[in-house]
Fold these 2 entries.
Entry 1:
Amino acid sequence: MVFLPNIPTIKVFDLLETKNLTVGSIPGQLIRLSLPIMGTSFVQMAYNLTDMLWLGRVGSDSVAAVGIASFFTWLGVSIMLIARIGAEVGVSQSLGANDHAKAKKFAGNAVTLVILLSIAYGLLTYLLAPNLISFFNIENHQVSGAAASYLRIIAIGSILYYSNPTFSGIFNGAGISKLPFRLNATGLIFNLILDPVLIFGIGPFPKMGSDGAGIATIISQGIVFMLFVIKFKKKNSLLEQKWIIGKPNLQYIRKIFSLGTPVAMHSILFASFGMVLARIIGQYGALPIAVQSIGAQIEALSWMTAGGFATALGVFTGQNFGAGNWSRIFKGFWITMAISGTVGILVTFCFLFFGKTIFSVFLSEAEAITLGILYLKILGLSQLFMCIEIATGGAFNGIGRTYPPSIVGISLTAARIPLALFLSQPAMLGMSGVWWSISVTSVLKGIALFTWFNYLIRRHPENKLIQLSPGEYIQPITISIQKEILEIKKLQ
């Protein structure tokens, strides 16, 4: 019998503790780790929901303007996933292998990389804002002008806006998921206060509409950024460099790119395909774009919940992969599938039967609510499969195989464009054909990725029974233990 010490935490730094996920209760660890991550995701979603909620009181044009500009902020966040995923996987695997110095190297280089990328992307979007917005061919010049102005405001604060997810990823990779939640929640509180003040012009402030929403977001994100910097600047923190940005180490930068690029490319292309779909649906006017923008934020209820479990599963899998504990990876995967699947089913029920109630919170126009109900019914049919796809992607990331989710995601997301062009024809489904193309491909992605990972993990030697003698089998814990048992049997 092999005894393992029950160590709930590994004290790596004087000020911070990283969670040891290689021993202990698997469901408890996944839930305790995922809840703060989900909380952080919901906080980030709440920024957009708050903007949409207040801008909906101004009118659907303001919602459409922010919705159009948000495609390019989404694209920026997707690019920064290179640093965030590289940090999460690199830090978690290094700590799982008990290499604390390497974990600090991954964290420091990820911060340096995301700041450099955010500066470059912010400069690009500021200079090209009107040209980028013109891609959607919006005939309403007031909407397109407001969208370009909002995008430039975000570009000015690009370091503040795009760096925080990577900061959160570093702490999540170390199993410290509560801290990012608390810091991001602090920013949300400021956003909740500033949004109505700047959008409607309360007190000494002028009425700024969608520009006010952008300024409120940047100020709030700036506060979160400063709180993260304070944490990083403390002695013996997760960063080894003296300043928040250090000299890049090409060895670690290359590894971060290797880990993060497949996930980032998936998200980049996902955002790009989303822009094409928005252009297709834009031929029906600004109102459908406004409905789709709000609908996507409502839908985030399920995919951010699944994303929380995906990140938790990725960190859990990363540490156990570093420690060689494939039996725990197998169990953790199935537990996460059960939880994420339940979430998907519950969201489907809400979308199908409470669509009007949900959408009426954001818009009061009768036509917009009717379209919103239709959107939620169509997308509701795919929520279970979308949750499974996202959670399974986290498992792949944890073992360092970030390409399968990208291959499945990119190929089937790309298929939405020809499918949308076909289904949106007047002789077919019209405008709703675009939304059906999203829902159908989400179902296919969930099935394909789940099947792939399940096949991979079942083929691993640790998930096969080993025969010691005729009629005698064991379920191995690690390959090294298997070998020791077989050697003992030979000696006997």
Entry 2:
Amino acid sequence: MQSKITILDVNVDIVTMNNAIERIESFILAGHSRFIATANAEMVMLAQTDNELRDILNTADLVVPDGAGVVWAGRYLGAEVPERVAGYDLTQKLLERAARSGYTVFLLGAGPGIVNKAKNEAERKFPGIQIVGTQDGFFSPMDEPKIIEAIRSLQPDILLVALGVPKQEKWIYLNKNYLKVPVSIGVGGTFDVMAGTVRRAPLWMQKIHLEWFFRFLMQPSRFMRILRLPQFVIKVLAVKKVRQNNRDIL
């Protein structure tokens, strides 16, 4: 069975939510430094012009299909992508598994106060969770060595990094070998949702793939980011057409 699909030069793993959790847990148990990315259409479009981001994603140990657009693109390009593995949901299930199995967690990123609210929510929702440290994302380059050393000394099993795309992916890639954390994941706005400062789309909108529209209604400033979605669709359609033309020539 095909294990990956290449979508606009970004390799995405073909996994279910359960597959992803199982693989992440195997990474934790192995103890090596692993990097997980949650790829949506916006991230894939950023990788079209950011070669560093594209190369980082293509060296990641697991890239889950976060976003209806990526799932659609994978299926349209011929892969049996079973479902969306949303980054927020993946984080919640991973925290649940961590509470049950005793894995330790460090939260890095989001605004001042937000990360601690996210910690409190995780502790409320997942009794027994061991969050060994937090750090908001508003730190200077001068503070960074001290923060990295603190994370390294605490030896968490899981590092959740909410610095926004592509900063969080680049930060993890640059520091993961020194940090020696078994699993590091870029989680975007997850802490804001956990803290209650950002609302997630109602379930019915998630099910009909309109979560992006809900985010736009809540944050109209996202308009330019939303424009990447039709650009993504157009580029995927073009790739499929080129492939069909090449087959016709052969």
